[in-house]
Amino acid sequence: MDQSGTTRRLAAILAADVVGYSRLIGADEVGTLAALRVILDEIVKPLLNAHNGRLVKLMGDGVLAEFASVIDAVTCAVAIQTAMVAREKPNPEDARIRFRIGINLGDIIIEDEDIFGDGVILAARLEGLADPGGICVSRTVADHVGVKAGVAFAPMGMQQVKNIADPVEAYRVVKAGAAPVIKPRVNRRLVAVIMATLIVAAGGIWWMLQPDFTPADPAKMTAPLPAGPSIAVLPFSYFGPDKEANDYISDGLSENIISTLARIPGTLVIARNSTFTYKDKPVDVREVAEKFGVRYVLEGSIQMSGDSMRVTAQLVDGVDGRHIWTEIYDRTTASDIFAVQDEITLNVAKAIYRKTISGSDLRRSGGTTNLEAWAAWVAGAQELIKALPEPILRSVSHFERAIELDPNFAAPYASLAHTHFFKVRYFLSKDPAASLETAVELAQKALILDPEEPTAHSALGMALLMQRQPQKAAQSVLDGARIAPGSALANASAAWVLTYVGRSDEALPYFNRAKRMYVVPVWWLYGSESQARSDLGDFEGELEIMNKLIARPPPGTEAFWYASAAQAQLALGNKAEAQIAIAKAFEVDPNLSIRKLSLWDVPYVDPSIPEKRHVRLRQLGVPDSPQTGD
Question: Do 6-208 and 365-501 come out as alike in CATH topology?
Fold first, then answer.
């Protein structure tokens, strides 16, 4: 290569990038490009000149500049972000143009007025770590600037970034006095995760500023992105001896992160039953983001070797196509999993909210430090979530074992309360009144141990409903949904109870929220919603749900869904379709009767509500009692 035009020097490199550029262009291409031209001409270029900076090049939505003084680079970045806040303030939040800025001090290669090298690459990577409207710098920059630029630097810890082999110590620029420059002790056991083979600089900085992977297309998502953070926590992979016996550690880690994040208001957390469809399968982040309609995806793994454990976690932004955060935790015992999961959850919360969150803001649900008790609870939870008779019965011994090992562990009491409720709901209990009383007692015990345990509120509410205490039941499940607004189970439980106490109109928003989290639908949620829509006279909505259930019915329920579809068709005046559906119901169960079908209606506080459906079923020839005495 001809070296005649190539020189090296130490410089401060500033890399800036427009946040959500693709989204802004998609919404208003002409307006966005015009606004960017004005911003570059009236803000960026004048401020670079005023702070002795050199504009190296413009790259679509990016800016690359160099400074002889690192203090000039930082003060220029602060000036740009300050000017942008003032300029964009009148615009709607979702239409504002904001920059992320990264600054590094390092050796650069200058060739024909362009600049290359690791110092440039790192500046681009630091920009990706910055908050929207924020500035992220390397430790070298923070050390050189100190307090000379009128700002302070808040540590972001060691960050693994693309195409840089070793972790990088990053700092966030904050207002003077807000945070001191802290020099944390580096964990020597931290092992670098090699994200990709180092790419030579000949391709230029433009390639380096591209997304780390193909971003998801919001237009292809199964549901629109919510206004607040949305995340899918994938099942952590397990690597090590005796996978069958130890897989609970990775499953439980994912489960607890989901339940903890679900407590943060404004967060959409995809339900476990949906994300666990990816267990032990290769993952395409774009596919996950589009399938679940989320911005963020958390994935990771656990490796066991003797007494040691290594947990790797990675958070990615599926829409921007960037790796946000990666960490490796080396621990000496498996019981350290509890501290690790708290650290991961805290780091994820900080990243997706881009604000200061403390450990006290995140309370792990029904916690224990007893690994054996936790393992027993996880094993039971994996059965209970199936919501079918046999798995529910299998879960009981696991929850009882967890309580025996740790009597102060709230979660298994709440889960065991659910099993007693289901025994009554599925007619498995020989003494329903006693089972319901036990369910109430167990849920109340869980709430004594942890008043903020959402699953205990849900279990208590459902049991109280079956005991014909509608007001207390509704209040309990609503408390659960308030505590964990991002929990699919808490929202589904609220919807279920509200339906049966005669408040179906209030139940629908909870059904909608729960279905948004249960992207892979659970049959009992759809079954309950169909009844709510029938109660409200929305028979077209009921039929839509019935068609989904008929396509994938749980064992032994086919006749019920056909009969429900039949009465909805009759209510809409579609008598021929109603007769076809009821014939299919009798084909599945020749002894179909109102009495059999009404077993599903037992929780209704007002029996006149389901009676309207029963009248239509009688018109279709369904007898009140089985013809053979079945």
Answer: no
